[in-house]
Design goal:
A hairpin with a 2-residue loop joins strand 3 and strand 4. The chain folds into four domains: about 160 residues, Rossmann fold, CATH 3.40.50.300; about 100 residues, Helix Hairpins (Orthogonal Bundle), CATH 1.10.287; about 350 residues, no CATH class; about 45 residues. It has about 725 residues and is an alpha/beta fold. The protein is built from 32 helices and nine strands. Helix 19 packs antiparallel against helix 21. The longest helix has about 40 residues. About 5% of the residues have low confidence. The N and C termini lie far apart (about 70 Å). It is elongated. The strands form two sheets. A seven-stranded mixed β-sheet has the order 2-3-4-1-5-6-8, sandwiched between helices. A two-stranded antiparallel sheet has the order 7-9.
Length: about 725
Amino acid sequence: MATEDKRITVALAGNPNCGKTALFNHMTGARQRVGNFSGVTVSRKEGEVRHRGWTIRLMDLPGTYSLSTHTLEEIVCRDYLLDQKPDIILNVLDAGNLDRNLFLTTQLIEIGRPRVHALNMADEARRKGIVIDQPVFSRLLDGPAVATVGRTGEGIPALLDALVDTAEQRFQPRGVAIPYDLHSDCHLEGAIGRVQNQLLGALPSDVDPDQTRWLAIKLLEGDEETVRRTTDQAELIRLVQRERDTLARDHGEPVEILLANGRYGFIHGLLEETVTQAADPANRFNITRLIDRVVLNRAVGLPLFLGFMWIMFETTFTLGAYPMDWIDAGVLWLSGFLQGALPAGLATDLLVEGIVGGVGGVIIFLPNIIILFLFISFFEDTGYMARVAFLMDRFMHGIGLHGKAFIPMLMGFGCSVPAIMATRTMENPRDRLVTILVNPFMSCSARLPVYLLIIGAFFQERAGTVLFGLYLLGILTAMLAAVMLKKTLFRGLTEAFVMELPPYRVPTARAVILHMWEKAVEFLKKMGGVILVGSILIWFLQSFPRDVTLSVDYAGQLATLEEMADTPEREQAILDLTNRQAAEEQEKRLLGIIGQAIQPFFAPLDLDWRASIALLTGFVAKEVVVSTLGVLYTVGEEQDESSVGLREKLAGAMSPAVALGFLVFTLLYVPCLATIAAIRRETVSWRWPLFSVGFSTAVAWLFAFVTVHIGGLIL
């Protein structure tokens, strides 16, 4: 253990829904970073905290029920613990569900690293009448046990003390092991000892000698990864197979069952010694069951979910309109100030039209994105989002998809990339591939600025309803696409859906604010990255070549108008002539040439070349659609306090029906580059990313065409 520099690495391990990440967030605050584990797409969080002169580096591992190799989360968690050898494992347990959580603990004991146990959600355990004898619990599990509440921070100072005490060896480990022969004479310990002795004589070079008991148990379990690591040890493999055959023959059950029985026997004995519960807890008021009777009701549950969604989008638009208008006014003022203060020239044009016009046109939607993720964070932290997935399971099976598919589809409301990665939890490869291909139809948060811009220009009075309708259309399109794919390319049965419904919890302000802060920072990083670069590129393409041949002598006509008497008609004629000149110059520059080349594809949708170019740039990132429109609609126009905003300019450039078609196309068409890359990584082929591009674009064009022409009759 790294005592000389007073630094330790602590890995947080625990079941899903045990409050592990909430505990991690409260311990580290803003001192954390998010990335991916090396070689895989599972995300990780790292953070640091200082306590009693020690620097504690915390690694939040994926939630998992065991250390098998059935899911990517299990593999990542297990590989980190075995290969990276953290100084201490912080085993986070749901204090109200120890019988389930302790199965992972038994495997952590076998790894042999020092452990500290966080009895998390202690407040919920107390409400259930559960009392845990912490000193005895600590002694039997050979590691300090501390009651904590991750949401509020209760017990965290004591938990940090336990980590430091363990690092300073104030808690002396005794080397506790799971006694597999304690409850029955099944000879497991003898088999484990023989395999362990064989391992000590022929240990693979990449294996820690302290892990021999763990390896012996996993070999007897038939663990594929452990067997793979020892395939060159022929004598060892023969011994393991003999032991497995003997145990199965003598006891009539596979070794995996015998080992599991041993673990559960240890858990049962531990709980008998350490846990007591108030008499007749079933008669206590159970708020979770009461709420579930409503939200999981087949008749009420789905309309209630749709109602919550409508409230979310209505609030996102109406409440966010105030700070959005303030930022919009600030951007307009900044543009006018810079144009008046700086000398005319390319540098000023780049700054005002390219950077401020492009980036400023997107950043005004930051308040709306924060509000949207406030709702999403609330739904997730309360436990309601898990209910939505459970509620949709019956419907998902009706369209031929696995019930698990709705979880990554819900994640698609945030970003398609992690949503596609989340499909790795699905065992059926056909269901997983279908979910990957339909996920981009779910409206990610990157599309939100486009919606808010167009809705604000054309549908201000029905903003929340239109926004809700777009998200609902995305869900329905994903479902229809899944039906079509399952009946054509991916025939086959789906599997049963098993998931855990966490109890309802009241989210803490800290957790919600931290979640919103992460999304705001992520959005602002895009401002300085892809959106800034995209805005500059768009400005360059629409600004060159500088000298173009015009069809009319605009300069001569303007000179003639300048000599006329100053009247309102003269001022309007000058303004019209200036705008016509700017429009013709745009059409004859690089961006205009590209726009006119692709415009025939969009012509049936009644979109001009500027809107066509904006959609084309959205292939890089959907927010760039707004920055492109911001650049194209500010070129050649005066930028002072009297300038109209981008929404007003758009309102004069297309009809409401065309605007609605533009929104539908934005919702459904080709995913961004990052999503295409994620599909490529997950499918290990270019076939499916290219299929996704073609399929989604065709669906988007068809739906937009119908919207424009039917909407033209209605609107």
